[in-house]
Amino acid sequence: MRSILIAISLIALAACTSETDTSIDEDATASDAGGSITAEQAPEESTSGQQETAADAAAPARTEETRDREAPHLESAFAGQTRAPIPADSTDWSIETVARGLEHPWAIEFLPDGAVLVTERPGRLRVVGADGSVSEPVEGVPAVDNRNQGGLLDVAIAPDFESTRTLFLSFSEPHDDGTNNTALARARLSEDRTALEDVEVIFSQQPAVESTGHYGSRIVFQDEDTLWLTMGDRQGHPVRRNAQDPTNHIGTVVRLSFDGSVPQDNPFVGHEENRPEIWSYGHRNIQAAARDAQGQLWTVEHGPRGGDELNRPEPGKNYGWPTISYGIEYRGGDVYEGRTEAEGMEQPVYFWDPVIAPSGMDFYDGEAFAAWQGDLFVGGLRSQLVSRLVIEDARVVGEEWLEIGSRVRDVKTGPDGAIYLVTDQPEGQVLRIVPGGAEAEG
User: Fold this and answer.
1) CB neighbour class for 118 (10 Å; exposed up to 12, middle 13-18, buried from 19)
2) What is the value of pTM for the model shown?
3) For the domain with range 93-352, which CATH number is right: 3.40.50.300, 1.10.260.40, 3.40.50.1950, 2.120.10.30?
């Protein structure tokens, strides 16, 4: 039933120009006829009702986003690429507060016993207990450049953590000359969880540049031996043009073995010039990434003014930035030539305009929300919401907004089936979305 209802909504969406239609008539129904119907009137009223129902079916599908686009002249490449209809099925939910008092938390990762590791962007790693207690900072964290968007960023425990206690941290790596880069460190968490041991930087983005933005920096495990690390274009002209040059790491996703070496089946292994670590390139700033149940990597990257993108990065492919985009410059005006398509460049699966400012995402595989099974949940900073995306056959067929009211930096399914969030604030929190319609706590 869910697939049928969504398909009907998509047909309606395809019949309209969803990129430019920003007003939704929520009252376009045939339910306002009042009074009783006599036998003589019945045939005529019945015919009229059928006509109204047909008109309703042709009306634009209801979407969460109703604001004007920042870039209405940049038309989507296919129906459903933006402003997917609100799903017909959902469920009641509410927010609970798990922990408070965290300074700009950036990432959350569950330990086997249900406690969580939380990074704070200024450069601290903490353990949050199931009771909401927040530990002292874990010792041994690498030095970070915490200016602006930089700092201690993602954290991920290795698949064999229970036996090895291995974890990975991404961060902005500082250098004495004022430059910095995205880096990945491997370490072991001590038995008492108070310190990192055997810390080793296993990857450093090249080149290092003088910038304090667009580090990307999500870690996703592909399997028991390899991982993906997302990066950004390091913000602004002209450095962002390097995202179209696979001889460097700017604006790329890299794929690494757990020791930092290059897997021999990476797409550019053996190439004379391209960096062998690269999985895909042409990205702007990927702060959300997750693997689906089939093992496919999905990412969401920040667009400029409009044009946040959902992608499925595949090996060796070019995702277009900054040559193509569905957004415009912050100051106004097209990004370079204002193109949305070019030969050899991939289209996004989905885009947002205006932006949600995405950060953190996870495919839901818990047991608390049956209606959400397999759906993708994407955090929003500027939008202060979580976007639920319903995906079928690698296309977004529905979008629902869960209003949180705080800048959502990371999203993770917990072992209890709740959806956990961290909020990017000076007094940040760990929150969880749970079943039920109660008012938010906190």
Assistant:
1) buried
2) 0.87
3) 2.120.10.30
